[in-house]
Amino acid sequence: MTVPRKSDLFQDDLYPDTAGPDPAMEPEEWLDCHDEDPILISMRGGYVTPKSRELKVAKKNVLDSRPTTRRSMSTLDTNSLPPQLLERLLEEIQNLKATVLSQEKRICDLENKLSQYTNGTA
């Protein structure tokens, strides 16, 4: 990049403020869906590392605040299901298995046709 001016002085328009090393918010705030712009620092004196940064450690388990998940049907006792629901579920499983088998046959047939076209035998 060529700048049409010659100067050894710092030029603010060429070196705008940039994001600094300090966080704009704490991790807990970010987990609570807050959003902040970064804390900007000037590049006028060059980057100077901070002498000491205090590391803040919070021993809060983030997983403790997650909502409890519902139990799936596979963990339920099948004796507690109404017979109509159980029959309907078993029928749906049978229908899905039949669909999978028919799709597998269709895919196999299409793959055979494709191999015939690519080999030039069709």
Distance between the termini: 61 Å
| Proportion in helices | 25-40%
Tell me about the biggest sheet? 2 strands, antiparallel
Shape: flat
Strand numbers in spatial order across the main sheet: 1-2
Number of strands: 2
Give the percentage of residues in beta strands.
under 5%
Explain this structure.
There is one protein chain. Strands 1-2 form a two-stranded antiparallel ribbon. The mean pLDDT is 80. The chain is built from two helices and two strands. The radius of gyration is 33 Å and the shape is flat. The two termini are 61 Å apart. The protein is mainly alpha-helical.
Outline of the structure:
This protein has helices spanning 27-31, 83-119, and strands spanning 18-19, 40-41. With 122 residues, the chain is mainly α.
What's the structural blueprint in terms of helices and strands?
Elements: E1 18-19, H1 27-31, E2 40-41, H2 83-119
Antiparallel strand pairs: 1-2
Features of the shown structure:
2 strands, 122 residues, mainly alpha, 2 helices, flat
